[in-house]
UniProtKB/TrEMBL annotation:
It is found in: Endomembrane system; Membrane. The keyword Membrane applies. Residues 47-111 form the P-type ATPase N-terminal domain. The gene is LOC113699672. SUPFAM superfamilies: Calcium ATPase, transduction domain A, Calcium ATPase, transmembrane domain M, HAD-like, Metal cation-transporting ATPase, ATP-binding domain N. Its EC number is 7.6.2.1. The keyword DNA damage does not apply. Belongs to the cation transport ATPase (P-type) (TC 3.A.3) family. Type IV subfamily. This is Phospholipid-transporting ATPase. The chain crosses the membrane at residues 89-107, 113-130, 308-329, 363-384, 935-955, 967-984, 1014-1032, 1052-1075, 1082-1101, 1121-1141.
Amino acid sequence: MAFGTGGRRRGKKSKVHFTKLCNFACCRSSLNDEHSQIGQSGFSRNVHCNDPDNLEQLQLRYRDNYVSTTKYTALNFIPKSLFEQFRRVANIYFLVVACVSFSPLAPFGATSILFPLLVVIGATMAKEGVEDWRRRKQDIEANNRKVQVYGRNQTFEETRWKNLRVGDLVKVYKDEYFPADLFLVSSSYEDGICYVETSNLDGETNLKVKHALDVTASIHDESSFQNFKAVIKCEDPNDDLYAFVGTLCHGRQYPLSVQQILLRDSKLQNTDYIYGVVIFTGHDTKVMQNTTDPPSKRSKIERKMDKIIYILFSTLIMMSSVGSVFFGIETKNDIHDGKLTRWYLGPGNATVFYDPRRASLAAFFHFLTDLMLYQYLIPISLYVSIEVVKVLQTIFINQDQDMYFEETDKPARARTSNLNEELGQVDTILSDKTGTLTCNSMEFVKCSIAGIAYGRGLTEVERALAKKKGGGPPEVGDTSFDAEGSNAELVDTGRSIKGFNFQDERIMNGQWVKQTHSNVIQKFFRVLALCHTAIPDVNQDTGEISYEAESPDEAAFVIAARELGFEFYERTQTSISLHELDRESGKSVDRSYKLLHVLEFSSARKRMSVIVRNPENQLLLLCKGADSVMYERLSKEAQSFKDATLTHVKMYAEAGLRTLIIAYRELSEEEFMSWEEEFLKAQTSVTADRDALVDAVADKIERDLILLGATAVEDKLQKGVPECIEKLANAGIRIWVLTGDKMETAINIGYACSLLRQGMKQIVITLDSPAVNDLENKGNKEAIAKASISSITKQIKEGLSELSSAKESSVSFALIIDGKSLAFALDENLENSFLELAMKCASVICCRSTPKQKALVTRLVKKGKNRTTLAIGDGANDVGMLQEADIGVGISGVEGMQAVMSSDFAIAQFRFLERLLLVHGHWCYRRISMMICYFFYKNITFGFTLFWFEAYASFSGKPAYNDWYMSLYNVFFTSLPVIALGVFDQDVSARFCLKYPLLYQEGVQNILFSWQHILGWMFNGFMCSMIIFFLATNCIKEQSFRKDGKVVDYEILGVLMYTSVVWTVNCQMALSINYFTWIQHFFIWGSITLWYLFLVIYGTISPILSTTAYRVLVETCAPSPFYWMASLLIVVSALLPYFSYKAIQIRFHPMFHEIIQRRRLEGLET
């Protein structure tokens, strides 16, 4: 319950004794009567208050208050980080190759293998280390904060958080954070209340009231703590932020609830200080118990990449097998009829690796040699390059000004970089409604009083319905609810009031006193002004009153009452005071109502009541609640306008408004005294059925109510929601809304936000039928379940039949299903047919959905069709759905931060989802897809030149290139351009991504990372390798290379082929890039230049180290025109097949982005 500032002016300490106020919420929270379980498993913690050195407690060895959120420690960083790196199959392979490279089997030096492996592993470990060090610094700061603790010399002394122990008595001052989970002993307020902000725990910024037990609330003086000794027996550490079970043994036993618990990392507000006893420390605190790792999510592209790696491993093994077989045959044939055929190789004196007499063994060793030689098929830098690219992509997402919400100062946040490309493949969006599509900022817009409808404003839903019917919007002064048919002009208030958007001249500005039912209107707004738990906050400078309310609805009701003459201005422990417009005199008078009991709203009760005594000494029960529970509690003698009110409520729901019924009754002294005695008895009982007893007693007095009317508040759609949903639908994305609203409300909200569109046919599945209702009235659960399953099965079949009959037409369908039907549709026997029906519809609305159903529906869609799902929500009830979906997007809105903390991406408004998916999602998918394909292309191009050369050299195992050429290929000469591609490339601009949403289907259909596309790139690499090798070897075979007539030797052939490979793969990148920046130019042409610089520098080193590279460029290749002409010929020839294919494909079978590019070039798009 958010009591704000206790009804006092800011800066002044309130003397309100809220603990004297018996309210339903407090008794519910304290009596989950698991208290009977104290001492059993799960409830075994004993805390000796103000006695941390107690021998019994020391033997229990509770954790200290030191907190660590790091993944590593100084001791385990290297082994644990290495373990993380070698969980990847490719890294294990390279490690094995590096180890074997020290043996005679290696075709190259061990150093050239170890270097790139160390660079890749070291870079990743460094990244992990930096991230962990940042967490470490935050831990150090938190652990070294100061707090005052009661010491042995009977005074409070300053100590660090990390030194606190269970049982310590601490003093926390205003605006300080609680250092551990504390039991509230007392506070600066006489009655022991304090105000707490829990935004660090759940994101909710409204203040929550906590109150000490009466037995400890009076302990304030430091000297009095010397004699304070007690034992708390409570639950063991757990992650439930909203419940606590325990007892305080202090003379006798007192039950404890969450109302007496102050959680670590929440902040003390509007209270000078509190005293508390440490219950849970360090990692036992509830906030730390909640810091579990979110479910591990991997993108579909990443999972597919693993399969490609396996294919390349298979190719590597196949190539090695072919090489070893042919090597074995050639080696065996070295001795034929006792004669040496290749005598110049000296096979007679060969080692075991080349012994013709043991050809099979030699072939096996050669197989191992080839496994090392062809390792370049596996891109060693792929993983680290992708990680770097994804991190850079998230920076662009975080800094996108078009997704920054200035009103709340919240930018978009990518909370993980693993799923960037998944944003470009979303097939189905599952969305919450309240706070996600809407603002969760309620406005009082209409009401029905004494059977007469008031309020002339039009809601967004009403405008959408008017548009749907084909007519223009109705006149603003017109209302179908208006029983008196007034067509007067609207009253312009001249000012905007948050929470109040009501316009009706009949009751505004005091005109309600002239109405026929003015007495009912007076009682109606009195209920709104009195039946709540809000606290007024008076600004000392302006005198304006604002309200700290438990919910936006409640604030809207109090504001509406104020604007219509019933201003709530003060609350004490026993009274509520109003400035009222007197019906007789027409003047404002002050009236004070004695507050006796508050029976708070809960999801189970669906109503709230207060019992007050008015100045005329009448006892009144004032009640507001949902129509589903209120109508059955109305008095049969006082239903004169029940039907009219029911009609209005239905029409308000159709207009997308949230409704509550307002009622009251007078109580006699005898009835109240009898009820109160029974209520207090139930409240203080310690039996297991205590909840049920309190519910039953509260229900007894909330009977025979007199109907006053109904309220209607609007939760406005967020800005841009209809346009966003329409754009996403045009992109071919299915959109499901999972809401707790009534079906009528959900349908009309659907029209308002463009989820349901003109011409769209609706398939409605509901159990609201006479047959099922009759069975429910009889209460036969088995018969109800049987009839419900039968009805749902029939409706699903009819829906599928309707879809089949309309298959040839262009009509789109929407599926609407209520919560009861959904429970049966998710049954394992029906879920597949339900999913089939739903996936054939463009939009789906699930009404009256529970949080569990939201998660189950998400799981069904994700696993049933293996399509990418995105869930978006803003509240704690959406967490299951967000974690279940492939991508979870949290809205950082009014309902706190639980959804954001459980999400993969966070945005401030639903409309930003359009840019997140259609722009960043499309770009990231395209970039990552192209990047991976290109990686495999360049490695196949390089790896197969080694294979062709080995075949050319009788499968001798001799590499075509110098050791360091091969080692640096993936690290320096070809890696940077591909990173630039992954970060900067754009097929079309952001404006065209949004203008042509159908472009998004390239990702949904996975066109750029389909097996056809992947194998096409691999084939391109295979072709390039053949062209490079065979052109290089054939053009140099029969002619001199230098002026002195010398022909090409092994070293020059290696340089020529390597130069051709470097030029070819980098120029291939230039052909593939759509959007050039100076960075791409620098990396592409810089990589080629770097190759020549390396040759020059490396060639100057002693030939002992540089071996075949010694001065090979400066003295041999560079002076020869043939080298440059051959390189040009080979590169052009290698690129020609791709260039030709691409030209034909763009001309005759262009992809969608290529059509847009052509239109831009032709000037048809600007």
